[in-house]
Amino acid sequence: MIDHSLVKRFRQEVGDRLAHQRRLDQANGLPPMTGEDERQFARALISQVLEEHARNEIGLGRTPPTVEEEEALAAGIHAALFGVGRLQPLLDDPEVENIDINGCDRVFVSYADGQEVMHDPVAESDDELIELIQILAAYSGLSSRPFDTANPQLDLRLPDGSRLSAVMDVTVRPAVSIRRARLGKVFLSDLAGNGTISRDIARFLTAAVAARKNIMIAGSTNAGKTTLLRALANEIQPSERLITVERALELGLDQFPELHPNVVAFEQRLPNSEGQGEISMAELVRRSLRMNPSRVIVGEVLGDEIVTMLNAMTQGNDGSLSTIHANSSMEVFNRISTYALQASERLPIDATHMLIAGAIDFVVFITKRNDYNVGGTLRRYVSSIREVNGCDGRVLSSEVFVPGPDGTAVPHAPVSCLEELAAHGYTPGGW
């Protein structure tokens, strides 16, 4: 067990010495340390502080920490300075999928096999938990994000790619949800290997991306929409220029220059304490069209940016990708219409349906389900693919892949653009 009170104390000491060194470097006209240099210097400071602590304990006639205890303290101090404090071991565990925190001592961890367990506290108090989130908000993403009584909601991307959502003052205790990005560099072949999609669907989607079809990925929360979006994006040729638009940076396509050397990642900017400086998703989508994109990828549609995005898809920006929350592939059209009604354009449903018909080529629906026949194992799989065929007062579509015996989508009806897909190597397997 690690003594967290010591970690907190030593974190303050090391942080003060680190800040002092920064001031000295600035006063002497030296360039600031790089992030990696600062981490290495912090490790040296941590060793120095722990050595001083051991000598002090011996001087007081007490037993100094063992080698194992010192290593645990050093890791804890470093995580508190540059990581996420006591959350770091959970984020380092590759099997952890989601972390839900309902106050500092009510921590629930979901694992990849569907198991959910209660975990040890992640802070000494709710105030300390809020302080941890505030530190993360100050240094994650492209701009500092406030998290206080005036700004009680927060969404951000952690250094490891995980998505954090936090609220305070609208709940009895601060609540935090962290969704892990377990599959960062993922391909359709990986998803075919783990059962998310069949080999036939992998070939279909590969051809659809190559044919520059506009694809909307739909599903419930935590169904795997973002992972599937990453896999689709990784089928795009390295020569293409990608613009991604997100509320909080999450896709991370720019982190793999060997796959995507030409990427610009946009992140929504929230207003400051005076209510100024906001840049909305809709504005960013409009801005992205002026940045010479080969494709525009909108991480998640949750509001009025849908109209701007659909307009972009109908103006020659083919091959766009996005995700949306929905309960079925058919419900996607109603969800888009609802968002369009909320937009400043106030598009009526008929106009929205015409826009959908001209913009979206395919809707891919991904399902999340606990399979109780296999010990409650959590399954994620594509269960439906719907092709948009046109508009006649409503969106006309056909379900070209439907749920098979095990729920995974199987071929059902021919697609109208089969010749285009065939030109990119797709041969239907079951029609």
Provide a descriptive summary of the structure in words.
With 431 residues, this protein is an alpha/beta fold. It contains 13 helices and 15 strands. The protein has helices at 4-27, 35-59, 67-82, 88-92, 126-139, 188-193, 199-210, 225-233, 281-288, 305-313, 331-342, 349-359, 418-422, and strands at residues 96-102, 107-111, 116-119, 153-157, 163-167, 175-179, 215-219, 242-246, 263-267, 295-301, 321-325, 362-371, 377-391, 395-403, 409-411. Strands 9-8-10-11-7-12-13-14-15 form a nine-stranded mixed beta sheet, with helices on both faces. Strands 3-2-1-6-5-4 form a six-stranded antiparallel beta sheet. The longest helix is centred in the N-terminal third of the chain and has 25 residues, at 35-59. It is elongated. The termini are far apart. The mean pLDDT is 87.
Key terms:
13 helices; 431 residues; alpha/beta; 3 domains; Beta-Lactamase; 6-stranded antiparallel β-sheet; Rossmann fold; 15 strands
Layout of helices and strands:
Elements: H1 4-27, H2 35-59, H3 67-82, H4 88-92, E1 96-102, E2 107-111, E3 116-119, H5 126-139, E4 153-157, E5 163-167, E6 175-179, H6 188-193, H7 199-210, E7 215-219, H8 225-233, E8 242-246, E9 263-267, H9 281-288, E10 295-301, H10 305-313, E11 321-325, H11 331-342, H12 349-359, E12 362-371, E13 377-391, E14 395-403, E15 409-411, H13 418-422
Parallel strand pairs: 7-11, 7-12, 8-9, 8-10, 10-11
Antiparallel strand pairs: 1-2, 1-6, 2-3, 4-5, 5-6, 12-13, 13-14, 14-15
Domain Bacterial type II secretion system protein E: 88-356
Protein name: CpaF family protein
Family: Belongs to the GSP E family.
